[in-house]
Write a structure and sequence with these properties.
The protein is α+β, with helices and mostly antiparallel strands and 424 residues long. The protein folds into 2 domains: 232 residues, Ribosomal Protein S5, domain 2 (2-Layer Sandwich), CATH 3.30.230.10; 173 residues, GHMP kinase, C-terminal domain (Alpha-Beta Plaits), CATH 3.30.70.890. It has 13 helices and 12 strands. The strands form 2 sheets. Strands 1, 2, 3, 4, 5, 6, 7 and 12 form an 8-stranded mixed β-sheet that branches. A 4-stranded antiparallel β-sheet has the order 9-10-8-11. A hairpin with a 7-residue loop joins strand 6 and strand 7.
Length: 424
């Protein structure tokens, strides 16, 4: 997205503050992105008046691998890549969105009923968020929007969740006086993804994006998760997400296998999730469980309990500013995912993208902690690197995996927000 003449809509002080608040930095590229998006909105919609700038971040899972679906604990953070939007309300009850590289998407809010043919589309996500809002007594209405995304697809930082929560925040600000809670927006987004998009998922991604910052999220009661903020005051480490390669398209059964193994162990104890039993119970009946289910199911259950404990440990370490302890927790989490959860590569996979990537990171001598990131089996890893080693690490990983597969991120304090207003 380029313009022949760069028009500026904010003075330097306003621009610096806005970009630093959103990304922790200012740069000519970020300023150009903002101003060009406003130009695009003006050109595409020919509207005048007060427009609003919205931003919805990506997210990382710091600790808590495959725990949320069994009512466990996770530590997650909003990060500095985002979907940026310029939006203006309309009175026609129609949502019309132009996104980089995609044809215009128009959703008439007079009909937001689920339709099978819309599954798997952004159109369905807008309908799903709107349906949740209406069903729960909130208001929705029309708007025009120009969107541009820096949330990389395939990097495990939840581009679809960033989109869903962005739509929810736009409805929240435009039509509900900004009063809807972050967790309620997350629930609307999860509903849209589960029911309308057709992808089963927990609430972690959407919650992390709606909340902002670093948070421990306890899903013991999935209707009312407990959130405990973890202040990230870390000036020693840089955060990297690395796309190690591999294709997720044929891994549905592998992901389902984790859920099924954990649920089957819970079912053995006549409960619906592992959170309602204990590690001691699983160990007591480990031989019986192995014979009735599998050794793998027992190991995955043990990972769940130990991983939830590690989430608590990570929170304490951050509160105490004990970076060494925090890094130890991350490394032990990664080891458990490899050894007990067994989600670093599918059976019979000779490529073993994730173990290879983790080994390269460890052997570089430049990485303090590394673990699988997200669902596993293919995709991404998460690495924490001392700032003095960051440039060398970045170059080494880019040499191994390609520069377009290495993402240096910072924690972002705000979730999806209205960031500014601009008069057109």
């Amino acid at each position: 997205m380029t313009t022949v003449k760069q028009e500026k809509y904010f003075d330097k002080f306003e621009t610096d503050k806005l970009l630093n608040d959103l990304y922790g930095e200012n740069s000519p590229e970020l300023e150009l992105r903002l101003n060009n998006l406003i130009d695009t909105f003006k050109s595409n919609f020919s509207l005048t008046g007060e427009a609003m700038i919205f931003s919805s971040p990506g997210r990382i899972e710091i600790c808590g691998n495959h725990t949320d679906h069994n009512h466990g604990k996770v530590m997650a953070a909003a990060v500095s890549v985002d979907i940026l939007a310029v939006v203006m309300p309309t009175d026609d009850n129609v949502v019309s969105v132009d996104s980089d590289g995609y044809p215009r998407m128009t959703v008439d809010l007079k009909d937001i009923s689920f339709k099978e043919e819309n599954k798997g589309t952004s159109f369905a996500l807008i309908q799903g968020v709107a349906d949740y809002f209406v069903a729960h007594g909130y208001k929705v209405g029309g708007f025009r929007g120009a969107f541009t995304s820096r949330v990389p697809k395939g990097a495990g930082v939840s581009s679809s969740s960033a989109f869903e929560v962005l739509v929810g925040e736009i409805f929240n600000v435009l039509y509900n006086d900004g009063k809807i809670s972050a967790m309620e927006k997350a629930k609307a987004s999860q509903y849209a993804e589960n029911r309308y998009f057709g992808k089963p998922c927990g609430l972690m991604d959407q919650a992390a994006i709606a909340l902002g910052g670093v948070n421990l999220i306890d899903f013991k009661d999935t209707d009312n998760p407990i959130v405990e903020p973890a202040l990230w005051e870390n000036d020693q480490l840089d955060i990297f997400v690395i796309n190690a390669g591999g294709d997720h398209s044929d891994l549905v059964d592998d992901y389902a296998g984790i859920l099924n193994d954990m649920k089957n162990v819970a079912k053995f104890f006549s409960v619906d999730c592992l959170r309602k039993t204990t590690k001691a119970d699983v160990l007591k009946f480990s031989n019986t469980l192995r014979e009735k289910l599998s050794g793998r199911a027992v190991l995955r259950a043990l990972h769940f309990f130990e991983e939830c404990d590690r989430v608590d440990e990570a929170l304490i370490a951050l509160k105490n500013k004990d970076i060494g302890k925090f890094l130890d927790v991350i490394n032990r989490s990664g080891d458990s995912s490899w050894r007990l959860l067994q989600n670093l590569y599918p059976p019979c996979d000779v490529e073993q993208y994730l173990p290879f990537a983790i080994t390269v990171c460890k052997e570089s001598g430049l990485c303090e902690a590394v673990r699988v990131h997200g669902g596993g089996f293919a995709g991404t890893i998460l690495a924490f690197v001392k700032k003095e080693n960051s440039e060398k690490f970045n170059a080494k990983m880019a040499n191994n995996f390609g520069s377009d597969c290495v993402f240096k991120l910072t924690v972002r304090k705000d979730g999806a927000i209205k960031a500014a207003e601009v008069r057109l």
